[in-house]
Amino acid sequence: MRILQRPTESALIVVILYCLVSLVLSEQQETPSLPSYTLTSAAEVFNEDAPHPLSRNLPSSKEIEVAYSFSVATDEKSIQPGTLVDCLVGVANGGPFPYRILAVGGALHSPLQFNYYVQNFTLLYVNYTIGPGKELTFSYRFQPHSQLEPANYIMSLDLFYEGEPLDEMKQNQDKILNSVVFRTTFHNATLAMKDESSPVDNRMFYITLVFIVSMLLFGFAFYRFFYPALKPKAAKFVGSTSIGKQSDANEWLQGHHEVLKANNMVNQKRSVSPSTRNRKNE
Predict the structure, then answer these.
(1) Is the pTM of this model over 0.90?
(2) Residues 108, 155: contact at Cβ < 8 Å?
(3) Which of 217, 153, 219, 164 is nearest to 188 (CA)?
(4) What beta strand segments (E) does the chain contain?
(5) Taking Cα atoms as reference points, which of 169, 155, 136 lies closest to residue 40?
(6) For the segment 133-179, what is each residue's pLDDT rounded down to a tens digit?
(7) What does the domain layout of the chain look like in residue ranges?
(8) Fold assignment, 42-193
(9) CA distances (Å), origin 139, targets 40, 119, 203
């Protein structure tokens, strides 16, 4: 018989080290890589033939701080389509070099896919340079389209500015520019569009309509396929039916026989011989 030996301490240590190394390697493989970007000048970003600035992957500078507030009567998380919204934007330069504020813009995105733009707000070109330690305040007005369907969207507001590239941004770049465009997304939150003029919520109306149609289809399918199987069937009395048919046939034959018998008697009376008549006359 083979005797099993208990594992030694060295073997247990080797197994534990192997598990730790495997765990570290798996975490390194699952770590997502940082998004790459290309240093771009303002002329390239805001060129008429270039893609929309909101679709560009631009870096953000940690030296620029943005504060904002919405000057609307209702909560910024829920507005009516077609409402004019004023956003008061404040920009502070905390770096040692000046920055030129180029423009501010925003968009509405699909909540299911952020890369899908439902509406792009008009860009506001500022073109104002703020020095080190300086601040700038301006108002940005935008308007969601009045024909937007009442639903939840993701609204983002972005600030585009130009300045000298940071030291860490100059690494792994094909070209070095004296001035590059930065982008800071200072607002990114869900915005609900509610049509207050309509007393009926379109979404609830369609949900109710789909529910009613589904129940009707379910009832029709149940009545068509399941109700006949559940309905009790009438028992068939084969014997009694056959007996009834046989008795009816016997009654018909008996009646027919009586009719024939009566006809025969009538014929016999009509066919009496002349001698018999003469005898009666005598």
Answers:
(1) no
(2) yes
(3) 153
(4) 64-70, 78-79, 85-93, 99-109, 117-120, 124-130, 135-142, 152-163, 180-193
(5) 169
(6) 999 999 999 999 988 888 899 999 999 999 988 776 766 666 667 78
(7) 42-193, 200-232
(8) Coagulation Factor XIII; Chain A, domain 1 (2.70.50)
(9) 26, 20, 34
